[in-house]
## 1
Amino acid sequence: MRKRFWIGLTAGLLLQSAVGASPRRADEPATGVSGPSIAGELRALADYDTSGDPNKALRRIDAALASAGKVGNADPKAVLLVRATRGEALFWLGRYEEALAVFRDFDTRMTALGQPMTPRHADIVNNIGSALSSLGRLDEARLYKQRALDLSESLTGKNSVEYAAALYGLALIDYRRGLPLEAIPKVEQAVAIATMASSQSGRNAEYPTLFGITLSTLQIQAGDATSAVSAARAAADWADVHLGKTHRLTLAALNALGAALNDAGLYGQATPILRRALDMRMAKADPDPRDLGYSLNALAYSLDLAGFSEEALAFYERSAAIFETLPASQQPMSGANVFGQIARIVRDDGQTEKALELNRKALAMARRLASSSDDPEVLRAELSLAKLLISLEAPLEHLDAAQALLDHVTAAYSRRALDTNLDRVAAETLRAAIDARRGDPAGALARARPGIAALRARLLDRTSASTGAVRLRDQAAGTFVLNARIAMAAGDGQAAFDALQMAGMGDLQTAFTSLAAIHDRYGPEADAAIRAYLSTAAGLRELLKQRDREIGQDGDDRGDFDTARRITDTERDLQALDGRIGALVPGYAALTGFEPATLAAARSRLAKDQAMLLYGQDAQGLVVMAITRDTVTSATTPIPARRLATLQRKLRASIEEGLLTDGTSGFDRQSAYRLYTLLFPDPIAEALRHSHQVAILAPGMLASLPFDALVTALPSGDDADPLALRRTAWLVRRHAVSTLVSAASLSKAGKRTSPPQGFVGVGAPLLAEAAAPGDVELPLRTLPPLPQLPGAEAELRAMADSIAGDRRILVGAQATEAAVKAAPLAGAGVIAFATHGLVGGAYRNIVEPALVLTPTPPGSDGDDSDGEDGLLTASEIARLNLDADWVILSACNTDAGESENAPTYSGLARAFVSAGARSLLLSHWPVRDDVAGRLTLRTVTGARGSTSRAQALRRAQLEVLADTALPGGAHPATWAPFVLVGD
């Protein structure tokens, strides 16, 4: 089960509150103390929004009340109203007891004055309920909330913002009672009412944002990531326009949007938004410490999911320090979650005792702050502690403790969450694992089956939004791996095989399957329709990213409105295209939906010398399954995730050093050998002994591992000695390795009798253009200088000379986005790029992976174009029209994913597959100019007749390795840069 995070953002505070403020004014405080000026100041403060800067508001209110006291003839009613506003400022600062006293005093005094009930008075009644709710006194709170709802209905009607605020307050009490599914429709109604009412009156502009943030958080908890992203975007859009870019709620909405994007698996999009929110909060003269704590926690989580756990740990610890030093009455529930995240990181580092201590601290904190034992943070902490207890080789009493925790968690989630909620399914699967540990694996598999089936069905539903698929892929992987462990213990190979496929599933698989299923079978009209659908979907992703970039940035409102309109139009176009494809292609949904292969079908596709290798990784270590035509073998390797990652980093560091020295430095063969023993335990190595070709399906960081450079026997000699390196038992000597897109992708159905013959080569861009002056702001100018690629043109021309058919080379000034998009790509059997690749999210202005081309400023070549930024992004690539058997990316970082450390093939590779590529040859790292053309050329020309692409790549690598005349050729940095995706 992957790390999860619910309310650790500003939404955590907002879920505990439902303050009912009124007017939205931001006048500076009056400086005089005369009666008329004080009267005007009191009138202004009676209807003042304190949510944007409650500290500043409190200082202004206290100054006005002090002046009113000196004057001595202030209107008592006006003073009471200002004191009520002071209570709202106290509430926003988390000083709930003080706020409650102020609100009760207002209610009592206004009643004693014989004043008729007004909407403002009803607001304060609602606020009393909010303060009581935040203090955990839910029964009292509900009485006040219901009273506020009844008063607002009679005074202002059901379409008023007052009614929306009271309804929202009742929803929060449902939530705090552990009933978020009952709370969601109330909050949805409150958002709709508040948005309409505020649009008409121009008042209470903070309510749509506040309610929208809460709605997004509740939808995350219910397992609906797609709706959560939509709600958070709407809240952020509204706040940006109506509250201002630095308003406290605008920053809270940015944090909520980041949280929703994280939950959807879109870490590359989330990280820049969360960094921006943190920067803006820290820039405030008097930042609220809790807001900083929430922002630090949110950014930590995004970095954590993107694979930077060490950097994330520092942010988590800063957040935890803030929350822990707050007074007990102001500590947020999400503080417990922060300690739980720290516990997970130290657990992954093998520090189990420290992790156990932190998990118990998190649970104690959650229980102390919660008003209900079913509070989400309590359940989260119980689940985390139970998971750790199960993973330990612990005595039976630890299993008993874990079982008690999980019985409570599963019962609570059955009442409060959808059956696809990740924590609910994880808890059910962990509970089943206890049965397996107690000696009943068959019963355990049966217990886990309903939850796993629901999660599986959701992931395989072609109609599900892509954000949901990404979220399930990333965060449900550990649960599927645990299910595979249970199935293996029960001797059910099919269930284990299916679970590992689900654990390694990415939306690259569905893109690959979709095009392969439709192409050449239903005619050009259907083919054109599916390509239009993929192109339009890619355009929608780019528009959504554009809207995220616009939020919180300076710009005119017309541009924001135009983006929103284009999103609406594009979504409508997608629906129409989906219907058209359904009419043209019988069984369209079945054809385009990914379905894991059965074990029998997978074995039948394998040749005698072929094997399939599947990996799964969870907190307990690795699960490995090797499949040949005759055998199915499984094994496990216990290793903490951080230690495995450390070994991979050591290998990568050795590669990096080899790149800097042109292969003359040493290579860490000991780490390569250690990795081999972990990834190929004895039962697996023996099962693969007669398999010359191995196709690997591996998740996450394992997908970026250069398997060819693993060492299969204890190395001897000097790591820097070329002779010793050539004598090393590299894995490439034993197996030809390729990366699986899916367990079904070895099918012969994808082979064609008459593939296209042409060649298009693109590369050697004019990188100096990135730094050239001009009127257009090019993202390339914000990047560190990129090195020139002097051998790129020669590499492309050598490749073109060996390929039949029409050939086109775009280099230098011709290597522009416009030229690539206009090139005859559909008729090319081989398309090659020799340029730099950029990782999405690694730079603040680069939110998705991209290939670097030559930028063209506006008006260049005498035209009136808007210019191009020189980045061919993943979304632009996906809109290309390809039919190539080979796409070769001989570039720097072309394995880049959608975030700083996303799974290797989730970015550029996925985009090319969506555009129509059938197999890809990608570089793990920058390829030497004198080697790149040699490896790619020998691979492409060698894959003919009975020689597979994987065997052709292997032979090319071994040829470079054996070449004593090639300086540094024995180092893996030189001969092992490429990975084959598909075959």
Note: The first strand starts at residue 610 and ends at 618.
## 2
Amino acid sequence: MQPRIDEMVLEVQKWLNKTYGDDSRFNRVEENGRTGWPTIYGLRRALQIEIGIQETSDSFGPTTYAKCPNINQGDEGNLVYIVQGGLWCKGYSPGGFNGYYGNGTYGAVKELKADMGFPTASGNMNRDIMKALLDMSAFVCLEGGTDAIRSIQQQLNYDYYDYYQICPCDGLYNREMNKMLIYALQKELGISKSEATGTWGPTTTSLCKEQSFSLGTQDPIIKLVKYATVCNGFVIDTSTSYYDAELDSALEDFADSLLISKPTNTINYSIIKSLLSSNGDPDRSAKGCDTATQLTTAQIKTLKSNGFEIVGRYLTKVEGGLNKNLTDEEIKRILDEGLRIFPIFQEDGGSNSAFSYESGTKNAENAYKAAKEFGIPYGTTIYFAVDYDPQVTEIVNYIVPYFQGVCAVMSSYGKASYKVGAYGTRNVCNILKQETEVTTLFVLDSSYGFSGNLGFTMPKDWAFDQFSVDLTYGSGSGAVSVDKVAYSGRDDGFSKVNPQRQSDIENVYFVIKDLYELAMIHTGQNVKESNLCVAQYIREKSQSYRGTLWELTGGKLDTNYTQKADERVDQSKGYDFKDPVSGMTYDIYHLMATLSAELYLSVIPGFEDINWEVFDPLVDVFAGWGGDLTTFTAEVKNKGGSNYRNWAKNNICSKTADTTFPYVDYIADIDAFNLGYYMGSQTSIADAFYDYFIGSNSELAKNRSGLYVKQAYGDFDSFSEAVTVFQEGMFPNVEFMDPMKYLKEKLLDGQELPELEYRLAAADAFIEYVISEL
């Protein structure tokens, strides 16, 4: 859809080309009826031609400003055409376009001045108003702007424009408004107009450090503090220069949000500087730092002695570049000294050319590989750097796609992945937080002159804030250069690594994740059915868990899904992995057979609200420890001899002996229940597998027996009773089937069940073993 053509703007463009088009000092403008910089530049060059400037330019520079005349009501000629043309482009109607400064033009200029903050000014034109007129600045509230900010902008123009220039009154806190506030502060500090710069130079810093205001005092600087407080997102009254309780409360909250110190009932340099610049007081202390130096023990001790608790370090280096990358030895040194690390990825990041969706995917793969090889725990945030000052359009066109690529790659690893953080200006961080899946922010506030910091508020959920760079601490071998970084506590980095990561178990996780994603497509996004599909599929990879018994207890596998999984999921690395607790080779097929039984009843129509107090024990019988305990009971009788009770205790759930109820069967049985319970109806089998066996250093698997007893039976006494009653021959509350008779037929090949004394010996041995595991 083409922007609307403004007929009066079109007329202005035609007039410019007709009047000045043959003059070499003028660049013809496109006649499209749309206001934009080309038309504004045309009006500026027209003005310069009219006032006799030979070397014209697109800027409204000092010469243009100095030579620009006053243009008053009753004047006529090309200068009036230029004024009227500027008004039409600004959206003000002078009543015509005729080169005569009549009532219409006078009224439009008067209206423009009122919008600029001069409500009682005349409708005549001077050079200050002309400079603001021939600009793309807006003087009405734009989308996203607020009346409170616009009112402050108008008041700043009224009180301080002579120190800088007339600035936009669009309701948006931006670079120009930030500069205007600093110019105003410089005027109040007594800096002359010729020395005022609108930036924090040494004179401004020195004079501001001398300022301190107590609650209840009045001063023009306090009013500027109020303006800046509103610009930083707070709602307060700005009509007076009185330091009241409302302002003090807002400043307390502001200081807390940046983790800076504010003296009680006092406004000082630290507060003023932080309100008006991104880096605040660069001399304040910090608990965090970052560095491109590969740290020695002496340097780490230097950092620790200076109060640093966490250090940002780079995962990789550019080939042929500085050796800024982490090493395994450095990680050990840092962690051994009690510091934590937050990882940074930057192999370029200094211009638009480094950022695209494709480069994002490549960088994410490199970062993932490096972090994994270091053993950095999954879930740690990696900060991808945007180490320059992109404008909004550049952020949208380059930076956002880059981070979308990074996030896509990290998401593809599921839970065996890393969180995506961003390092960049305030504007970069704020936009990425809104437009991408970036989770955590490392703000580049030290570059306080960057346009992406000037006039932008601090992201509310920042993790790290770099506010001062290239500082040297220590001496001799302990000397080290770092950047100071405020540390909010939202990201603790990492304090340990997993030096012997089990790539086999991670490979199994990735296969389960791929199988689950395929199952979700196959089942129409049904989580419970998808989980069952995966469990059944892996179950039947083993001949031992095929057939009527397992189809009865765990459901029949969907052959259509089997075909898809065989064709589309890479299973070349197999399903073998080591149990993270015992180190023994895990029987995943047994796990999935029992888990199939856990999941099966929940997907049968009519069984959604099943009484699990009845059916959980039945799953134990038919697919879990019940069958193993039954066959083990026969071994107690056949192998135990006269001392069968001791034999049972010595061989139950053995990690070494060859029995029918080894340790690997025990953990598969109870892990299946724990996973089924953990999954519920919404958690994927892949996420459950990861959390149980890999996540948080396998804490769930380490407590598997306790989890099982608590979740399946409530307490140990109930579990003990269930085992004993089962061995005696009947489960309570199950009147329609004798589990022992069924197991006799299926598991003992028709042999007689061992006598009760052997069954109870096996039961006691099992109960005693579980006690030892709690």
Note: The radius of gyration is 37 Å.
## 3
Amino acid sequence: MNTASQDVARSGEVVRDLSAIRLSDEVEAGGKGANLGELTAAGLPVPAGFVILRDGYLDAMRRGGVADELAAEHRRALASIGDDQALARHCEQLRALVAKAGMPPDLADRITLAYQRLGTDTAEAVVAVRSSATGEDSASASFAGMNATFTNISGPAALLDAVQRCWASLFSPRAETYRAERSFAGEPAMAVAVQIMLAAERSGVAFTADPSTGERDRVVIEAARGQGEVVVSGAVEPDHYVLAKDDLRILQAHRGSQAFEIVRGDSGDSGGDRSIALAGAGQDRPVLTDDELQAIARLAIAGEKHYGRPQDVEWVIDDGGRIWLVQARPITTIDRPAAATTTVPAGVQLAAGLAASPGIASGAVRILSRPAEGSRLRDGEVLVAAMTTPDWVPTIRRAAALVTDSGGTTCHAAIVARELGVPCVVGARTATTSLVDGQIVTVDGGVGRVFSGSHPLAQPVQVAEPHLAEAEPPVVTATKIYVNLAMPDAAESVAAQNVDGVGLLRAEFMLTQALGGRHPRDLIARGEQEHFVTAMSESVQRIAAAFAPRPVIYRTTDLRSNEFRGLTGGADYEPVEDNPMIGYRGCFRYIHEPDMFALELAALARARELNPNIHLMLPFVRTRWELGQCLDLIDASPLGHSRGLHRWVMAEVPSVVYWLPEYAGLGIDGVSIGSNDLTQLVLGVDRDSQPCAEVFDESDPAVLDAIARIVGIARDHDLTSSLCGQAPSTRPGYAASLVGMGITSISVNPDAASHVRRAVAAAEQRILLDASLTRLHRS
């Protein structure tokens, strides 16, 4: 046999029909492929398809001449875990190597032949292309969402491209970190499952045990209209049902909220996915009938009986009303024990400051002077610094606690620490000199103190207050209570609280994390614009999906020169300003650097394709002409054509009191008062200045008068009004004052949302009572 014939034979061995695959083929077919084959063999309804076995990937890398280089780079990537910037660089190089290797022509021919067999004489098949990595969907690791899946793929060229993109998805920072945390040894490899893509009328998941309580005598089903990714990604609130496993009685039925569905795109657009808004009857009726619920439960239970353990099953009802299973895997968290908590005794007080983020943690002190030293911080150490800015975020994520010399409770260190659930003390003044590297300390972020010694069970306290919602009925208010967010890490837990959405999603921290600490202009200079768009859109999507259908107001990056000089490459692009607080930032900067602004708008446009609850807010708007030119840039971008997009402005500069009617005439939808910056500029004081701390007062009559004027003007021009600042969180009467002004919403830190809502409810009740008494007296 000549070389060409050997290659064809080898490629034929690595493309196998689902009907010929069993669970015992997990190593070659990956977890997803093996489970689909096993379900097929069990006689359960599974769409037809085939699997490109892992040897297809390995052979392509060998024949492409990159196998050895991949192995070496992968070892370097594993060694860099904990260093977000280095890991991102290594993963980017790994994906570039996969792309360089390409796909051998004979393997491409074999895949194309298998694909053509799925079609008919008159039409090519529409398929789903799904990563099936070694160990994925196994009893010990789900790999949920770690690797790529592509839906509604049509045509050989699109299929081959999707297969190679699945291969490349092996090497994302999240996948590498997940494998390391799960102690997966050896070189990663990827099989790819290709299945007939059903025209999904309704889709969802079914658990044959309750994943939250561990009860095995029930089936939990969640359902939505259209394709199932809106359920598994959390993009919508699905209908939720609980059935008794023995007789399929419906024990619970909770109606969800679905503003849109994802369906197959038009053939004229080469297939793909399409998002369709739902309204009226499309939202009002249950997704499933009782008969359909019970039929899905029977299929899921049949899968559990076949495997002999509780299963997490994905199902689809096609446009003909038939129910199919499209994935099954063991429930990996059902036996996980709950984490323990304890109270930590205090030692000798070593430092004191402001209580910025609650929680108690012990660890060795690590004093750092700049973000570039972040690699010196070992996981679980206490980060001590003079002050922190967004480029510190990767380091803060690995810290047990954070202590800073300067700053207030609204500074960057405090904000990001609360987001990540890291105990934090700010404004400790002498922490970098009174504490010593290696010294063991306990940080109590709830009281703003640092003590000597440690406690072996000290743990951070997470941000959310879930027990309040469980212990008492949810408080309802006419004034919306939003939260301020800066990172996707806490999105799911915060979204579970009784909040109405995200009133301020800060871009700066996400940008720092998503770009691995690199300045955006550094990416542009190297032609990596797509990396910017992809990374930022994925971060925003994660938050928007957690809160959907509640609104998420994304504030575009407020590029202050002093903060962004610290990013990789930042010194080459950022001016040195004596007073960056009122310098080159906000709308003015967008006008002068439209190419960088365009990347952010492109990222938001991509995120809104699946998450139409995302809206836009522009920071630091000084004048009408600035806003007008920025709105023109938005209109000219892909985001400008996004239906239902609301455009807000931040009210941080006092000039907004004069210009707001003109802003309304330009077509904005809302205004959000940044009370921290507005206070600084009304009173002429730096909020982070320790000597001037007593001057900074959001309750100063001049500040309150400016806020009242802004709210009144907004009301007169049919604009929504909000406030995102620290005062409502810390001063009980402040929220009541805002309600009295007629503000539409208040956006606060997640840890304050519950008590602010109660304060707002009390204020609203007093207003109603006063109005009733007035009417009574008049009568």
Note: Residues 1-12, 136-145, 336-344, 460-472 have pLDDT under 50 and may be disordered.
## 4
Amino acid sequence: MIKQLALIVIVIICFSAATSYSVESVRVAVLPFEIEAGEELLYLTSEISKVISAHLKQDGAIMIEPDVKPGAIDYSPGDDFDLIDEIRKAGIKYGADFVVWGSFTGSDQKFSLSAKMMDLYGETPLSSFSAGGEGIENLPVTVEKLAGDISLKLFKKEKVAQVLVKGNERIETDAVKRVIATKPGDIYLTKSLTKDLRTIYAMGYFEDIRIESEESADGKIIIFNLKEKPTVKKITITGNLVFKDEKIKENLSLKIGSILNIFQIRSDIARVEVLYKEKHYYNVKITYKIHPLKQNQAELELIVDEGKKVLIRKITFQGNDIYKAKQLKKIIKTKKKGFFSFLTGSGNIDENQLEQDVARLQSFYHNNGYIQARVGEPLVTFEEDGIYIIFKINEGLRFKVGKVDMDGDLILPKEKLIAVLKITQETYYNRSVIRDDILALTDIYNDAGYAYAEISPRISKNMDELIVNITFIVEKGQLVYFERINITGNNKTRDKVIRRELPVVERGLYSGNRLKRGIRNLKRLEYFEEVKVNTEKGSDNDLMILDINVSEKPTGSFTFGGGFSTVENVFATGSITQRNFLGKGQRLSMEAQFGSRTTAFILNFTEPWLFDIPLSAGIDLYNWEKNYDTYDTDTQGGGFTISYPIFDFTRASFGYSFSLVDIQDLEYDASDSLWDLQGKNTTSSVSIGIKYDSRDSTFNPQEGAENGVKIQYAGLGGNIGFTKVSLETGWYIPGFWKVIYFLHGKSGFVWRNTGGDLPDYERFYLGGINSLRGFDWEDLSPKTTNSFGQESEIGGTKFVQFNFELRFPLFGNAGIIGLLFFDTGDLYDNGEPIRLGSLRKSAGFGFRWNSPMGPIRIEYGKVIHPKEGESSGGFEFSMGSAF
């Protein structure tokens, strides 16, 4: 710990020395501004100067605070030489290199600012600046712009005067400029141009991009010289017998006239290979050749090696001593190739079917007394002559049914409840029978009003006698009454017509059977296309809300339309409208538009006090685009979240979200998993969480704690399937001299669900101002080598993070605090254990200011023991977010 603190001190001293050396010659004094306006605006004379001083200080200048009171220097027109001489003497007196002064003219409706800057020792002694605006509320923005102009002149920074695009013939200049981040008026930065080059290349239309710059009186002229990729004039396919050319071309996104994009070609090849594999040609191989033609055109040739059709040739079992293979083959749905396979479909392989077969085999053993039986993932081997599948089985020992008992909250004599159970009639342990017995007992308790009764079997194995004693544990909970019965969707049918068909009533005792009977009665009326029933907990544990939603045959309002436009091409629209039927003040409207370029969803529903209790409910839809280093995503989705206070400072939440992520514009160094998921990917997830937050402030808390846990499960449909667990704790402890100690820990785990994909953007990443300061996110991320031989960052499946901060006030009135910090943590991939003894570390210092524009953080992190190729640390800045 002593070595670490010593390192922090050395970093601070070295940084301070370096900073003072680099800006020692830039000392600036800002004089009070002259206010030529009403008396109510005289306070601006010092406020404008303060804002300019703060901006210049942030840019690196040493600010001199001259002891010049407002009005001490007369800026009014007169002898300019005397004024300049007076200001020069004042600047030299206070040790400044530059002096800034100026005036404010106007009113709270319209105003103008003018300023001058004198270089006391330079050849160009005077520079002029001006800015104006309307509305005094816009003055801060105008002052910031004026300060920015002064800073550019002071530090001799170059502006971008013009951005030109040359060499493009087919691709419009505006389309290129839309993706270029560098704009006229920006500061000339090489790293920004490098990013622009990568962005233009990611468009996929250009094979060569060169950036040049020219000098002009107004600044740099940036020129993007482009060489376009050839267009596809012809697509030929050779070697294909199973599918005709037209069928293969239907599955190609690349068309004649398209830009020849290598990534698109590879994506199309993968799509055609899937087409073949669906027909069981698993050994298909597709390559391509590009034949250059005149006028920057090319012919694309797809060369198909179809191979032979591959079917299941043999299914074997290993470890099955009790049951013969012939009997087990009857359990599974996967079958080997038969004589009539062209009619029956036998011999075809289906991964989902295989997974279900594993469950079927395991259930078969468990239902016949082999409670320790385990069936491993099937081993599938593709050979030239067919597919070979091996199921590995560990049968274990067979157990008989021993004593069957009941315990817990019994509402009937034990003998009567046990008489209902079917497991007592079984010789050997049978899991499916136990499952049915649980349902039968649950129905008994539900009919008695215990809607939330929980029944679980406690299994006790006797290894000596090979018997299983089973005890059904019952937690009946409370008697549940219907607090309210809500009926929705009935635009024409009166409530009383529906209610009289229900054998359950408000404030009546819950009964599952009577509820089922009532729904059956409603369907028999033939008034409704559909009847949906949902139950949820009411305002107390013994109350339940019953929601019955009916869809009437002639009711409701639904519209659908479509068309064609030059902007959207083909598009379709649809809307559903529901009136305020019962006059409760709730409004629900849904509208959707789908086009070739635009997909729009409009959904609005708000109920902050659902059922007049503090149950927060919300629904949202979103559509965002995000640019990563090696790929882009275009995401649409939506979801809802509800939360309810369960204790002081504690809320429990539940949410559902659905998103459609389009992965596009991949670069060569993108991971193989991203290439596999290129295109649209669907995520459907639910999440639950509990959060405790007793902090007295969000930006600079003085005391309190923030703890939470959240579990997200994705896989309720779609191809993305994962489970993510996040845990976080943070404690703010007051110390001496207004010092605050902050202890923070965070961890997360994510794993891929069976049958789903875990994309890189759902993994964990560390590094940066909100996790491990000083590290870049690439430094800690697990890496893999993709098919192009490029190293890719793929994120971790688990992580740990710890932060310790010592916060202390610097300028209490201004809300500026300083801090020293020590961060440690690391990321891990699948199969890697968490090693707390070898976590990565960084340390540093920072400043925070709760400015009028939002919370601002400036922090410097130094990596302790950086590895080869890693960054050693640096400054980071953020605005508008709390740590």
Note: The chain has 17 helices and 41 strands.
